[in-house]
User: Fold these one by one.
Assistant:
Number 1:
Amino acid sequence: MDLLAILSVVLVIVVGVPTTLLIVGRVVGFFASFSATEVRTEKPPSGQKGKALIVYEPGATRQTVRVGEEIGDLLLERGYEVTLSGIRAAAAKSTSGYDLVLVGTPTYVGRPTGAVKKYVKDLRLTAGQTFGIYLVGTKGAPTAGFVPKAFLDAMKKPLEASNTVVKEMEFSGVKPFDHSNFVETLLAPPS
């Protein structure tokens, strides 16, 4: 093999594979988001402390839904009424009356889905509400530290301007999730 052939193979591996994964992930995520219309509400067994809305983009593996359900279970244990809603459901658009509003998104090559970006951009929260976002990497692709800081900063800026407390957590499809730590962070008083 000559040097040009080797460089071509390296270029395909370095640029072509991630680009292909990004495109496939975006297409699958786009079509999967149209099925995200489910809504379910559960009340805590005793004494309600607050209300939480968990909005999710299911992604190709529905891992974001599973993480949302596990976070919801922990919030139920702590006395919160929990509404779990697909991003395309009407319930996802009505955030008034909730103490916590959480959004879950899969990431494809470190990027959240377009539906979540639009949802966050259009989100209008009120002072005193806490907003949390959790990002889930596809199986075998670590997410932590890979989501562009620019996205997280751009997402947080308008929400923080409205005196909304913003918290984020990244999970990976490979490592065990620390949902309880995320819930404790969400419920902690603002620093």
Number 2:
Amino acid sequence: MSETHFGFQKVDESQKASRVRGVFDSVAGNYDVMNDLM
């Protein structure tokens, strides 16, 4: 098992991509709204 950093946590490398995707999915809608307002 190989670990890598995700924020301030150490996670298994196999989990990192899904965690990054989760963060992206959680902010994408608000990011689009912000861009439209600018």
Number 3:
Amino acid sequence: MSQPADDQAMHDPDKYAAVADNFVYVHRALRRDLARIIAGGEPLFASDFARFARILEKHSELEDVLFFPPLEQRAPG
């Protein structure tokens, strides 16, 4: 696994803002995809939900390793 963001990037406001923007973008995309699956009813759920669940699981694992440790270092507690 990769190491969390380096200290320089963690304390650079522009780089931190870019990471935060990406965080928001990805979560909006996940919500849109889930809403699409729900709106599509049972056929779309049957065909697409397993893929969505795998993506969401990997996304959560990556957040735990790459995003949250530097965030905790930046604002402990």
